[in-house]
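the two lines:
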Amino acid sequence: MTMHGFLRHPGSYRDPRGHIYVAGSDIFRTVSNDVWPEFQTIRPVLARFVDEGRLVAFEEVDDAPDDRGHTLRHPHLPFISYPYEWPFEALKSAALFHLDLQIDALKHDVTLSDASAYNVQFIGAQPIFIDHLSFRPYTEGEYWTGHRQFCEQFLNPLLLRSCRGVAHNEWYRGSLEGIPTSALNRLLSLRHKSTWNVLTHVVLQDRLQSRTQKDATTADRVRSKKLAKRSYLAILGQMRAWIARLSPADRDTTTWASYAENNTYDDEEKAQKRQFVRNAVARYSVGTVIDLGCNTGDYSRSALDGGAKRAIGFDYDQQALDRAFLNAAKNGTPFTPLFLDAANPVPDQGWRQLERSGFASRAQADFVLALAFEHHLAIARNIPLSEVVDWLVSIAPFGVIEFVHKDDPTIQKMLELREDIFGEYSEDTFRAELLRRAEIVETQTVSRSGRTLYLFQRH
Amino acid sequence: MRKATALFTGAAMVASITPAYAYLDPGTGSMLLQGLIAGVAATMAAGSLYWAKVKSYFSRKAEDQTKDDLGK
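prediction for all of em together
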């Protein structure tokens, strides 16, 4: 039966064997008739991955967006994020997860036809695979088809930080298919290139690719050769062992990574903030919390303690994000920390600017936290206070915003070498702007400098 | 014309070898590299397996020794 109301997801166009459709809050996947028999043969392996929590669940349904095949229904994931939003530790965790999945699949004679990082999503800090049609039966002797893509979308961005101390996020955001091996090869030093793994997967791969590009016979030559299964498994295993050892090269602690320990609050003030957040969230029925300036996730945890189902944190400090991710992964907290420059959020982009959605369309939550945050936009980035309030209130119907006074040490530090051009910046202006858009439910002053928490309910 | 036919046959053959689901270009560089490192990778994997066995043999011996010592 062909049903109305199905909308094909604009990002689902690459693989003609099936497409993703969205109808209301349901996600559907078509599987074309010609690959259905093949899909049936690997189905037990996929079912096993679903049971293990590594693959999004699926069930066959009669409703169909088109008449070209069969349809699967999937549960809706609470939040979609992209590799250019993931901190290093999240990308590393996704890479290891992808390799483990491939290794286990291959043991059951199933392989993955690609290695797109966008096929991995996070529930909390737990990776999950979302593309069922990436799996297919393994043919004896075949190569790791996704190797090049794996390098561009997982390995190279990790090497950029691990060899050079440069985070992948901004580059990846501009180059959605990842970081090209040829570009990374130009950036690495002789010291990096003298290690076996970099020498082979970066230097040699790039040389071989550029040398054979114009040679018409190469494609036939490689196609006639076969890769033994034990070699395939060995390459995957060694890639896994290598990535597991990678860590960021920038080890000097950033201001914000140690913020949770060394900030201008004392312990009592922090405890007050935690309690305020917990009580505020507990007043409402909260599914998703968006925590702007999440740092290592302290207040997201308070929100979860207050009954929120999940928290998505955003920050621009890479080290704080890495810590936040590792903590959440270790404790199984439903908290996903992501990279965001709030003054330049991720846009709608990709093919027709519809393929990957921007921050604004995804960041709709039930509750927003903006603690020790607004002054980073209003003072450090010169954004008018009215616009900062407008943006914060647009994210969720309820939330807590902390107002920081101009004589607070952090603002004084920001203005140390600058002229104070922020005549409008005051708590009175802030309160007036907030009242234009929301009801102020409760306030509490939490520091000696007068930092005040505002719980709001949007009009 | 004959050339065109030959080309077409060639292309058809290539198409029949290339799996229909390979919508992704694996890249010649990646495939050549895999061919080159395949042997080394498999040997290293076998070697590390052997090494793990050797290590576990000795650690088991050491463990037995400790147990013996404790027994005394």
